[in-house]
């Protein structure tokens, strides 16, 4: 992550019903735009030293010039980007809540590979929606991982004629 003075630091919230938190970078403490950053939060006007986590991103104040080194490939390394779309829904019935999640690969060779997960809230349990979301999503991702591993095992058999051995 690299920032410049005036860029916006955007921190996504763990729940969809909460807006992302946004602040303006006032000072860059790290070398060459690296964290930490002094940020003024737009929602409350306070300033804070921020070490951004994986839920944060930088939105440049002004589009940056592309530099040749930004496109130079690493020697001997290829980078692939894969995207997983996660959808969560809830069904309410007689005081019980059932949370359903789907995790779907949406790019490349694995497009449309899909995992599913479910969580149920008993009518006597305290209603904390994040718990159902977390359980259902984790189960969907686990199911997706199992299906992806099976796709790899099938490919190994198809290309080598020998069954896949877990290592």
TrEMBL record:
Taxonomic superkingdom: Bacteria
Species this chain originates from: Thermobifida cellulosilytica TB100
InterPro entries in the cross-refs: DUF1918, Rv2632c-like, Rv2632c-like_sf
Domain named DUF1918: residues: 1-58
Matching Pfam families: DUF1918, Rv2632c-like
SUPFAM superfamilies: Cell growth inhibitor/plasmid maintenance toxic component, Rv2632c-like
Protein name, entry field: DUF1918 domain-containing protein
